[in-house]
Amino acid sequence: MFNKIVITGPLNTTEDLRDKLKKYAESSIASPDTHPSSEKETIERIRDADAILVSWESQITRNVLEKLPQLKYIGICATNMDNVDVGFAQSKGIAVTNVEHYGDEATAEFIFALLLDLVKGFGKYQWREYPSELFGKTIGIVGMGAIGVRVLRLAKGFGMKVIYTSKTRKPDIESDDVQFMSLDDLITNSDIVTLQVPKNTEIFTAHEFDLMKPDKILINTCLGKVFSIDNFMNWIKKGQNYAMFDRYSSGDYYESLKDTKNVIFSKPTNGLPVETKERLTKQVIENIDNYLQN
């Protein structure tokens, strides 16, 4: 059992997480309503904790960790671990866990919800002069990880042709309707391009945007920056191009692009349906349980 568990800021878990945590802590469980605004505030919040739970937005740096000699456990309540200096934490004997795949289904469904709004004209914009079908269109998936595979599955359900590029080619998913291509060829041959790459992987430069001819749709649900705003702006102004972003993970893109024509930001719900929160909460508790048992 831990002496004290601190939740550093808001998490995308169910509301009963604190109640579920009580049996793992001898004393109080702190859970502020805001994210810490500085390293100093982070240290103040978790100074006397031996276990902390953090979202991907809370930065647990080497400097923070050096001030916390009593810390034993960091539970990242997200998949991405870039916000924690994992190597240094582990060198100090601090266990670090994360949660994978809890929001994959929701993200893939979200992509197609936005697509249907656009191609059918249900929302603010309509892709072409008349409502279109997804059937027969070509979608290019950049990054065939867990989310990419789920996007592939849904795309095939709509009768779309799928092309993909990825660090690792996956012959087991390929068929007449699913083909591997280079990034350049994928961009040239796709009606719709969706980005599923790791945080801050700058996958699109001016060159890639130049290959995106008019009448294309670009979808970005990645964390961090995957292209420069200047290169993007040069592209979005050409022809009937459209771009869709998940506001929750879009960071600086939202403030810079929210008033740009043909740019669509979702409400901040991507990956956060009740089932997603339940999966996240369940795995957070299981991670703690496994750590304490071992």
Automatic annotation (TrEMBL):
PROSITE patterns: D_2_HYDROXYACID_DH_1. It comes from the Bacteria. Keywords: NAD, Oxidoreductase. Residues 128-265 form the D-isomer specific 2-hydroxyacid dehydrogenase NAD-binding domain. GO terms for molecular function: NAD binding; oxidoreductase activity, acting on the CH-OH group of donors, NAD or NADP as acceptor. Residues 19-294 form the D-isomer specific 2-hydroxyacid dehydrogenase catalytic domain. The keyword NAD applies. Gene3D superfamilies: NAD(P)-binding Rossmann-like Domain. InterPro entries: D-iso_2-hydroxyacid_DH_PdxB, D-isomer_2_OHA_DH_cat_dom, D-isomer_DH_CS1, D-isomer_DH_NAD-bd, NAD(P)-bd_dom_sf. Belongs to the D-isomer specific 2-hydroxyacid dehydrogenase family. This is Dihydrofolate reductase.
